[in-house]
């Protein structure tokens, strides 16, 4: 096995069966994700992005095929994989400090070490001084920063992000994208991020897995060859805009093909 591969997805399909109706959510997915690579899974709603991510997290099992992480078949969730969801999943009854500390306590990390770790990650996400605040007192962006600090605190090998900035306004979203890249550079991890935002995918990822729907499958994998020290300004670079145009073209083409198929049916 190649040593620098983190995830190996082999012949994975997923079919939901709710008794009355079967939905083929994903068909024949094959993908390898390298260690410390930043992957964006991009596509319109319903193309199976979350399904794929939830299988990587171990919350869902493939109907056929296998997924391996670090050479081991995924059998369920594990502390090697941290998740951040779109909807704020902080514990409302715990303050910021305790939310970030939670996973460390579960792993029985000694108190002194817990304190140092929580402080470090809260600093990294710019939330020093907010330790005592409760989630309801925080803005959306701040809540997602807590969620990122919490996911990172246990030092997982990978981070799985499901539309993490989807509920934020455009400005906060841009800021969170930059902050997340900064934190990722400081604490290298394999990141798999689901998004339907083309610009976000180009800005953040090393490779973009462009999905198609009906059923969900990989349409194309785009290598983003832009400098890695990306900041806000790269969004107006001609190369950046070309990636956006190319991917938009793929998505339009896919929508047209789908409409034609529907009309023929
Ligand atoms: P995306 O994240 O790209 O929006 P999803 O992975 O959520 O796509 O869904 C892919 C397809 O599977 C959709 O057609 C959706 O309706 C269906 N689906 C997702 N979750 C379930 C479920 N628990 N039961 C039945 N169908 C589901």
Label this structure with key terms.
alpha/beta; 6-stranded mixed sheet; about 260 residues; 4-stranded antiparallel sheet; binds adenosine-5'-diphosphate
Mind explaining what this structure looks like?
There is one protein chain. The protein is of the alpha/beta class and 265 residues long. The protein has a domain at 1-36 and 44-74 and 198-265. 37% of the residues lie in helices and 25% in strands. It is built from seven helices and ten strands. It has helices spanning 49-57, 96-106, 111-124, 140-153, 170-186, 198-204, 238-264, and strands at residues 5-17, 22-34, 38-42, 64-69, 72-73, 81-84, 158-162, 190-195, 207-212, 217-223. The protein is globular, with a radius of gyration of 19 Å. Adenosine-5'-diphosphate (ADP) binds at residues 16, 18, 23, 25, 43, 45-51, 216.
Bound ligand species: adenosine-5'-diphosphate
CA distance, first residue to last residue: 44 Å
Strand line-up across the major sheet: 6-7-8-3-9-10
DSSP strand tally: 10
Q: How much of the sequence is in beta strands?
A: 25-35%
Basic shape:
globular
Succession of helices and strands: EEEHEEEHHHEHEHEEH
Poorly predicted sequence stretches spanning 5 or more consecutive residues? none
What Rg is obtained from the alpha carbons, in whole angstroms?
A: 19 Å
**In this structure, how is the largest beta sheet organized?**
6 strands, mixed
Percent of residues in helical segments?
Answer: 25-40%
**Number of DSSP helices?**
7
Structural class from helices and strands?
Answer: alpha/beta
Give a summary of the structure in a few sentences.
This protein is of the alpha/beta class and 265 residues long.
